[in-house]
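anyone seen this seq b4? input:
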Amino acid sequence: MPDDQTDFSDLLRFGWEEWVSLPGLGLPALKAKVDTGARTSALHASEIESFGPASKPKVRFTVHPVPGREDLTIPCSAPIVDRRMVTSSNGESESRYVIAAELKVGDRAWPIELTLTNRAGMASRMLLGREALGEDITIVAAERFLQPELSYDVYSSTRMRAAAPNRALRIAVLSRENNYSTRRLVEEGEKRGHTVEVIDTTRCYMAINAMAPEVHYDGARLPRYDAVIPRIGASITSYGTAVIRQFETIGTFCVNGSEGITASRDKLHAHQLMARHKIGMPNTAFAASPKDTDSLIKLVGTAPLIVKLLESTQGKGVVLAETRKAAQSVIDAFRGLRANFLVQDFVKEAAGEDIRCLVVGGKVVASMKRTGAEGDFRSNLHRGGSAQVVRISKTERETALRAAKAFRLNLAGVDLLRSEAGPKVLEVNSSPGLEGIEGATQKNIAGLLYDHIEERVRPTPVRKRKLLG
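predicted toks r here
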């Protein structure tokens, strides 16, 4: 509020109802009822839920700013200032969270405290109490809208997304490992003021209900998350993607969807998907019958060949057969184990090197060249390979983007080989590690991922139509 030196000519005149805004909460236009009989101001909110550490608790909630427009929902969050008992005009007492916010009226703005309560039936979405009305405000009880009028049409504007504040989010990282990637996601999220919880995927269980699907964990229903970052291990792909499907059913934004993760983990499915989208890759063949071994090799080409288990990860289950006879022996051995495998052409000119392109939100944000350990044709960092930053070509960038898009992944590690015929995609990884590429490129990859998450979970402007004035 203005200080004691305010000139008398600066007095504000309020009617019993005024247009106001709470820009810090992403609410550019609200009708507020002025009630001098109430001490504290109130914001009519729903889905009110506390989160965050006990030392710095926050509350998140949703606001339907336009009466009668339940389709328009603005998600908000704020630190909790207090919690107090409030008695409404009908004599009912209620314990409410108290938050601080900046109130803006015309070209004037000042800090106020607000209690949060669900009053869905109230015509005014906000109540202005005595504490928010200083001595420089005069109330004219018989009039309304004495201050500049606003319009609900602002909620239909495409500018609203850009103007939305960076609110605190509640994010779940689905991971069973306390590794570098998981720690970086927690560290970066908390640095931005978000609450990040690591959830062991295998300890989740689901209530599959058409009306109220839920995810439970350690005996309790999990809260509503703004976003889920899946870090699903290859050994639990089936169960992990089932948990992600449940979050998708609830309506939670999942950085990578269940379909994309499932397709990326099944190498046969992955190669068929890339072939459908005409994405370059090494010549590949697959067969189940041992009678087809010679034909399988002919489809791919001449030795040397790569024989790869469908479920292989981090270079495990990938064998280089340098001669035709060696290829036949490896194939027979895999068949003896009843294992499913692919046979691929070996790209000699790649010389044990590949390119990892990291795609976030439809953009290649970093790339590195990985070189295998001496004597090893595999370039995986987990197998002793080394990495360094690399400049990729326009064709390589476009190939990586097309591959991530084919799998509908918002976060993807696309591995390319540089061949004489152009870039060849080896693999699309739906849970790429952050350590190697952050170390090689010195880029804050976790931060770029949070930039994308924050953009995706901001309020979406509603379709332009006549809103109530």
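The first strand starts at residue 12 and ends at 14. The two ends are 28 Å apart (CA to CA). kinda curious what u guys think
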